[in-house]
Amino acid sequence: MGDLTHVTIAFETSHLVFPTLIAGVLVLLGLAILLRDRARIAASGAAWRQTFAAMDKPRFLGTIALTLVYFSAMVPVGDLWPNTGLGFLICSIPYVAGTGLLFMHDRSWRQAVPLAIVALAGPTFVWWLFTYPLFLTLP
């Protein structure tokens, strides 16, 4: 009976419980959708071919590449300054600037200066908000 009043938290793995649960629920829901709509999904090849032919491939693939690099680099950079959130801040500034430049049609200095200000101010504000008022650490 005494064990019911004690809670043990493994801080090394406790942050992985919620994402693992959400991933499991999303996989189950995806499988349910796949089973329910398998005939429509199998017949949608022509629509996907048309979609891929008409899409802006450099922006689409560039966004995927930037996002993969962003999430891959955040934890190793954050491990250089643990529990400070600087990994988020240092990786977010070039990510916001890179995606902004990628989606910018006219890449002139006049257009790039506001983007640079947003790329510096946005992640810095989010980092400050999570670090000081909310007392939450980012990776």
From TrEMBL:
Q: Which residues cross the membrane?
A: 16-35, 60-78, 84-103, 115-135
Task: Kindly state which keywords UniProt assigns to this record, in alphabetical order.
Answer: Membrane, Plasmid, Transmembrane, Transmembrane helix
InterPro entries xref list: DUF1468
- Give every DUF1468 domain span: 17-139
Using the record, list the residue span of the signal peptide; answer none if the entry has no such feature.
Answer: none
Pfam families in the record: TctB (PF07331)
In its keyword annotation, does this UniProt entry include Cell membrane?
no
Q: What is this protein called?
A: DUF1468 domain-containing protein
Species: Paroceanicella profunda
